[in-house]
Amino acid sequence: MNGMSDRVKRDSKHPGKQEAGSAGDARRDRWRKHRIARRAEFVEAALRALDEHGPDLGMEHVAAAAGVTKPVLYRHFEDKADLYLALGQRGTEILFQRLIPAINAELAPVPRIRMALDAFFTVIEEHPNLYRLLARGTFQDKPVDADVVAEDKEVIATALTALLGDYMRMFDMDSGAAEPWAYGIVGMVQNTGEWWLEKRTMSRDSVVEYLTQIIWAAIDGLCRQRGIVIDPDQPLDENKVVKLADRKTERTGDPA
């Protein structure tokens, strides 16, 4: 007991040490938040540079768009690959912010499919060079040990597998087909998107409508084989939703 009392007395004699520690923690927290916000600003600048220079942009283009020098930029990104990954994270955020609400809309089957496809094609139309950069997997001729597009494809296909499986079980169908079906749909949409970005032989609305009809025809055909008829323009009795699993850890570039 005497030892504890002595420690309490010693602490009470030096309150400044505790206050200094709290102040130091607060300063570190403010600095960490500042670096995260600054890094986010540079990512937005990189998106602007992509619009202007295309996927062959260099760090000097990003620095110019941000109004800083390259050494300042490198204080917040370890290297070109680090910036590439930050752009990938931002691209994923933009895509999922549009795509997930569309997929989960409480709509009839065909309008729901159409809305989800429109969300994807709208994003790649608004950010074509970002998609090209991420799909190419290199930044200024430097290979990157990450495939952001493939990772997003995996997340979406996994979520779509669960969604299709829920519906198939609801109709007493074999849900084993949900996974290959989901990967087939995601692959078709991705490949069509890449083709459309390069060719632009039709409008976004047209390619979305064609894909909507193709996907619905497959769903409708499979259901009818099993004696199930679904009205494409009437919401289903139960609205199943997509739930995304945890993605890769957010990369903030904030040092420990």
TrEMBL record:
UniProt KW keywords: DNA-binding
Record PROSITE patterns: HTH_TETR_2
Keyword flag Glycoprotein: no
Chain segments carrying region Disordered: 1-30
GO molecular function terms attached to this record: DNA-binding transcription factor activity; transcription cis-regulatory region binding
HTH tetR-type domain location: 36-95
DNA-binding region(s), chain positions: 58-77
Xref: PANTHER family: HTH-TYPE TRANSCRIPTIONAL REGULATOR RUTR, TRANSCRIPTIONAL REGULATORY PROTEIN (PROBABLY ASNC-FAMILY)-RELATED
Protein name stated in the entry: TetR family transcriptional regulator
Organism: Prauserella shujinwangii
